[in-house]
Design goal:
alpha/beta, Rossmann fold, five-stranded parallel β-sheet
Length: about 230
Amino acid sequence: MREKAKAIVLLSGGLDSTTVLAIARSQGYDTYGLCFKYGQRHSVEVEAARRVADAIGVAGFLEMDIDLGKIGGSALTEDLTIPKARTEAEMEKEIPITYVPARNTIFLSYALAWAEVLGAYDIFIGVNAVDYSGYPDCRPEFIEAFEKMANLATKVGVEGTTKIRIRTPIIHLTKAEIIQKGIELGVDYSMTHTCYDPSPEGLACGTCDSCLLRKKGFQKAGIADPTLYITSS
């Protein structure tokens, strides 16, 4: 029996990365989930990533512990105010304070290292350039540049035996289309977490950028949002 191709999936426990894991599995990959404790303000998303990995199924699951809070510069790693109740126009106006400096570059670099060890030549990441909060490391230009670098900076790339590919299956989908795709693949979105500022009990705030985009996605998809919010609006 032919061995399945291996793939690393960056897994945050959020809606996007969970859908991407389901897509990678549906494409026949042996998936390896990579999650980060990066000094974020809460552990809810890491707990969600564990649930997702267990529910959808992975061949391996790795939690990396790095402290980007020591660098700072983001409301997700420092005691800074999370923007709330913003309009889409406001979200698109500038890069928000919830941007974590170089986060996807750092995460993909760890994924690249693990991929070399595993012999996994595909790295899946749930970046999205349609319904997103303006992060520069979610754009196709960034992904293309990182993939080029990955093949210059690794043994497998230099030896030319194969090509490392950064897979972004939802990069051009709206949030509604992402949700619809996940539902088609049997994803239970109640186990995912998206909120930037959850309550101590893990309830989503309902008004941060991430919650608003999630709500909009379910509404436009015509699918009931299973998220437990602090607010009912």
